[in-house]
Design goal:
Layout lengths: L2 H12 L3 H11 L8 H12 L3 H13 L33
Length: 97
Amino acid sequence: MSFQAYLDKIEEKTGLTPRALVDQAKEHGYDAPGVKAGVICDWLKADYDLGRGHAMALVHVIKNGPGISDKHVGSTGTHRDPSNTLWLDGKATNPAG
């Protein structure tokens, strides 16, 4: 599953765009440098019933922004993404389709 696909599934499950969840995380202070991934995962599990894999995808975006490594961009593996920038504003509005 691509990184973007994880974010799209999170949106389907929660009804919120990844950007809305990142904004909530910031309101909780989860974007602070010392906050551990487990704390964020616990919040996402309690409030949105997200599993660890989906939660960790969102942790990456909360901590690092929408940029991802070029490692899987244009590759043929199962984790390939079309771009090194993730779309956070909802899959229906993603220009990449």
